[in-house]
Amino acid sequence: MSSNGQAKRVCVVGAGVSGLVALKECLVEGLQPTCYELDTDIGGIWCPKTEGKSSNTPQVWETLITNTSKYMMTFSDFPPLPEDTPIFTAEALRNYYKRYAQHFQLSSYIKLNTRVIKIQKASDHNVTGHWKVLTCPTQDFRGGDKSAGQVATEEDLSRCSSEIFDFVLICSGCFKKPYYPTVAGLNTFPGDIQHSFDYKMGSIYNNKNVLVIGSAFSAGDIANDIAAHTKVCLSRGKGTWIFPRIMSGARPSDLCLPRCWYYSSTPEVYLNNFTIDQCQNRLDHMGSAICPINPPASSSSFMFGDEIYMKIMSGRIKVYGELERLKGSSAYFSDGSVIPDLDAVILCTGYSSDFSFLDYEIIQENGKMDLFKLIFPIQEEKRTLGIIGAMAGDSALAPVFELQSRYAVKVFAGKLQLPSVEDMKADADFWSGFCLKKKGRYCYMIPGFLFGDAIAKLLGCFPSFWHLLLRDPALAFRAWYGPIYPAQYRLLGPDSNWRQASEICRRADAEGSKPLRHGTVNKVKRDDLAAARRGRLMNAGLLLPVFALALYLFHSKHTKM
């Protein structure tokens, strides 16, 4: 509460995945949030873009499905429906977020079609930590699509309304500014050039010669999508690992990574052995020159796919190395390969965050961010500003955004204290160094499970094996030797709900393929096995007299001696 007895106000920027959960956590802690969303609906990148409407988030193409499974990418206290399929389509995930907003009654706190133009320190900020937030209707901003990075002019500011907030949570995500690589000849390429930011469908490339550039998720998905309509060339840079969504045993891949691996003495050995084995079982990465020099645990280049294996094996997708230059309509690669007569180039080369509306430097010139747990700016004296979801990851990130939100809001509410500046600086340097080592630049792609556990320990909700063992031994073993479900962060500590969380974990373990059933389950009748058993018994029956005769002759021979 503020000094006048009213709930303290929080500005939440963005109603995407991180914005929705931040909004909900503000309400849990008794704060008064207002959420500004520039698009026509909630959902962030999962919100379909309307033609002619301004947007600042990438397109979701028609065939897109999620890389992670439903129980791993939903929030800890709001499970998916039993009838939801194990892997979400874009529409199914969008519906989940709408149900989430409806269940927690978030809609009345969200102002759609409203763009945050500027956030600056209020006149009394040095005393109160307050922030002044200027907004305007989305259609009134001159920037239009892909306006990330554009600084508002005085004319823009004159059309804005302003409000004062006690706290600010920036939840605009990391998919804001498309990254365009420096490739010689790209600017003079005569064909179509498109960034994955604008990609909609593969059919528009029917019978065209297309080059897709990229070594991560969107490059694999888009190359696979276009390959249904035409042959595709994929420039995989320094290499990539193509990881299957579905493992042997018909389990989604993220359900096969137990927490105990990450806390073993040799976590990289476990992860590398498992990942390489799964990738190699579907496609010879080494023989086909697809994989990078670094093993999976040390690499930041991953694709998820199941169909893409067959597209590569059948030649619908041809994988090339590192692109060196474009000359005319031809592409030249570092190993001497050449692709002539290209019609289109699609850049799947990533994004970066955008904080141009913030009158405060978050991203340094070299791309580094000094943020404690990628939330709190270390150099800021007043801890009233937080960043949620400004990173990518190697696992589902919605649970990590939720943990970030829970932590930030509890700090705002005065229920948790931040560590010393020295400790926060050490943490920020560690994660910046980790990302720099993997990518060669400050591109924040974090190990989702470990990063989430680190925040959970600060919150006091880490699912400790020994604490769980005292209450439910079976659940303790599943939490450490089974999948890392988000609901495990509601078993212990503040905001815990043992009954609901344990039930979600059990349901996730037991569900299996039930959502895929649309008819009677038939047990396969194996007459061949019965025949095989009869054959083995018959063979044993024939061999038994022979064995008995041999034993008799052997015994007779030795008794006569």
TrEMBL record:
Which cellular components does GO assign to this protein?
A: endoplasmic reticulum membrane
Protein topology in the membrane: Single-pass membrane protein
Enzyme type, top EC level:
oxidoreductase
Cross-referenced Pfam families: FMO-like
The task this protein performs is described as:
Broad spectrum monooxygenase that catalyzes the oxygenation of a wide variety of nitrogen- and sulfur-containing compounds including xenobiotics. Catalyzes the S-oxygenation of hypotaurine to produce taurine, an organic osmolyte involved in cell volume regulation as well as a variety of cytoprotective and developmental processes.
Q: Which protein family is it in?
A: Belongs to the FMO family.
**This chain belongs to which protein, by name?**
Flavin-containing monooxygenase
Which species is this record about? Lymnaea stagnalis (Great pond snail)
